[in-house]
Amino acid sequence: MLQLTSFSPLLVGEVMAVSNLSASYSSLPRCKSTPFDPSWPSEAQWFSLNASIGDTLIATKPVASLCYTSNPFNSTLSCSEVAENWGFSTFHAELPESVDYPVWANNSCLPPNATGYDESLGCHIGGYPQYIANVTSAEQIATALKWASEQNIRVVVKGTGHDLDGGSTGAYSLSIWTHNLKQLRINDSWKIPGQNERVPVLIAGSGNNWGEALDFALKNGWAVVSGTDKTVGLGGHDALSSTYGLAADQILQATVVTTTGEVLMANSQSNEDLFWAIRGGGAGQYGVVTEYVMLTYPQPVDIVSTNIYLAAANLSDYHDSTINTTWDAFACLLSSFPDLLDRGIAGNGTTDWSKSRGSMIRLIRFMSSMVSIESFGRMIWMPDICVKPRVDISK
Q: Which of 126, 141, 175, 176 has the fewest CB atoms within 10 Å, i.e. the most exposed one?
């Protein structure tokens, strides 16, 4: 049963919305509707939308509501439970409204231990979506998008909530929550559109994260190019990327729902421009992907992984010249990356340095799936690299 909520006047900055493709650009309103506009849908209209998508519309209730006096949104999770789990992406992924980086939701309704918490701000919806469509089918998405487009309502899409740029949340919006599009199946002989070739593929709903998709593929005897964090949505790069490319390169077909309510098949032969856009050629404003068809590969025998450290001989040497030399060595290592990639090494992660560790730079992490441990060690210890880093190849 849909329960409508009161609206907060706290507005955040612009966030990305799905375009209204059914009208010419010049005829569109400059801004999306808000609860303070006469054009905002009435309660009856929201209830009508809810009925049209199978009673799956959720009124946003910030999960940390119980951390505030009177529990304004009637959250059922205790404040201690929310605070304990707030730092875990898996916690936010399971919640319809929550995101990994709440600053994009204007730090609305944070638990006391969260960065940006200010008790005086209270608990409000703020930059979270006003309503969430908890969809399980492309048809539900089509109905919701067409309705939002006609009503001039901002639309955001949330899968896991990992979006670093805040695209999975937005003030006064309708959120399409793809979390429950969990279908997974292997087709060992899928025909590539426009070709006579058949290939093994994984067909995955867009609500899966990489942990779910990769585990399923491996259990069925295949590997896929995935992300390096199992909790993120489908996309990215991993140890197979030096050999096979990015995850986006593996997409052979996608099912896409547009704001006009169409469910389209996009591949190299049909809706080619849309296919190009959703594989990285566009800004994410063309529709909602419900399903991917992606290439699979034989499982690698070994995955070799290591961290790399560059350090001065004396870790207590804080002189600028020593620190600068260490960074120069690191720059030289980076210059060797194209050759390392050509030899089958893949890498990702962060580079960090702190004075407490002296003149040390840490690069996390390098991986390879196509070479032996011994070959991996020799490649990282290449004589043409300016500084030979110490490598622990046992990890």
A: 126
Residues 170 and 190 both lie in one domain = no
Q: How far is CA 29 from the centre of its chain?
A: 30
- For 375-389, letters b (16+ CB in 10 Å) and e give ebbebbeeeebeeeb
* Helix, strand counts (H, E) of the chain: 10, 16
Instruction: Judge whether 224 lies within some domain.
Output: yes
The mean per-residue pLDDT over the stretch 63-77 comes to 95
CATH of residue 206's domain is 3.30.465.10
190 shares a domain with 159: no
CA angle 93, 96, 100 (to 5 degrees): 40
Backbone torsions φ then ψ of 95, nearest 5 degrees: -105, 135
Q: Domain range holding 199?
A: 184-298
Q: How far apart are CA 122 and CA 120, in angstroms?
A: 5
How far is Cα 200 from Cα 198, in angstroms, rounded to an integer? 7
* pLDDT tens digits along 250-299: 999 999 999 999 999 999 999 999 999 999 877 678 899 999 999 999 99
Q: Rounded to 5 degrees, what are φ and ψ at 255? A: -95, 125
What distance in Å separates the CA atoms of residue 340 and residue 333, rounded to the nearest whole number? 10
Rounded Cα gap, residues 274 and 283, in angstroms = 11
292/362 same-domain check? no
Q: Of 298, 330, 360, which marks where a domain is finished?
A: 298
Report residue 107 as tokens.
């730090």
For the segment 119-171, what is each residue's pLDDT rounded down to a tens digit?
999 999 999 999 999 999 999 999 999 999 999 999 999 999 988 888 999 99
Beta strands in 127-211 (DSSP E): 131-134, 154-158, 173-177, 184-191, 198-205
278 domain-assigned:
yes
CA–CA separation, 66 and 111 (whole Å): 9
Residues 147 and 86 in one domain: yes
Task: Judge contact between 204 and 294, C-beta under 8 A.
Answer: yes
Instruction: Say how many domains are in the chain.
Output: 3
User: Whole-prediction pTM value?
Assistant: 0.82
Mean of pLDDT values over 71-88: 96
How is 29-69 classified by DSSP, letter by letter?
-SS---TTSTTSPPHHHHHHHHHHTTS-EEE---GGGGGST
29 lies in the same domain as 173:
yes
The answer to whether residues 253 and 141 touch, using CB atoms and an 8 Å cutoff, is no
Look-up of token digits 């590539």: 192
